[in-house]
Amino acid sequence: MICLTLVNSIEDIARAGREIENLLSMRCKKRQENLLQHHLGIWVHRRMTVQPPSCLVRTTTSGVVCRYKLVQTASLLGIWTLCWLEPVPPAPSPPSQQELFNCLRATAGEDAENGLYLPLYTSGLNLAEALTLRNTNPKSVHPPLFWDSEKSRFSRVRLVRQTPRSEKQSG
Questions:
Q1: CA 79 to CA 83: how far, in whole Å?
Q2: What DSSP designation does 110 have?
Q3: pTM for the complete prediction?
Q4: 138 preceded by cis ω (within 30°)?
Q5: What residues have CB less than 8 Å from 16, skipping those under 6 apart?
Q6: Reduced to 3 DSSP states, what percent helix, strand and coil does the chain have, rounded to the nearest 5?
Q7: What pLDDT is stored for residue 28 in this prediction?
Q8: 167: three-class secondary structure by DSSP
Q9: Given CA atoms 146, 150, 153, 155 in this order, what sign does their dihedral have?
Q10: What is the number of structural domains in the chain?
């Protein structure tokens, strides 16, 4: 199962983070599981926040088509919607950030240019993936966020391109 947050506007991200943490902390006490473990990203899109997609479709690099069916949502007044999606049939692996971004843009259709994606990492930042996604979609993808469970908030990750030593010496 994967998790995705839909947010009405960029200004609502901090609020959504606090409120989702409160919601999940109550659920985790009952279920004893980390519900944010598979939280992959935040999609800022006004229409999709109030009308979440019933399904996302992705094609893996090996050509396998995977469908993610919406199985549960939690929402607050159209400000944010937390979505849990389950692969049908079971997917060979979770989607990459690029695959999830492509799914969201395809689902938004003509309205995709109004969307903004923020990749979310709950553990282990894949720097190469984050840089590639940001560099190939600079207007539609913000720098990634990292969920700081100690502070119960999203923290921004700074992406800095490091210049290899050989380039520094030859210049």
A1: 13
A2: G
A3: 0.80
A4: no
A5: 5, 7, 42, 76, 79, 80
A6: 35, 30, 35
A7: 59
A8: helix
A9: negative
A10: 1
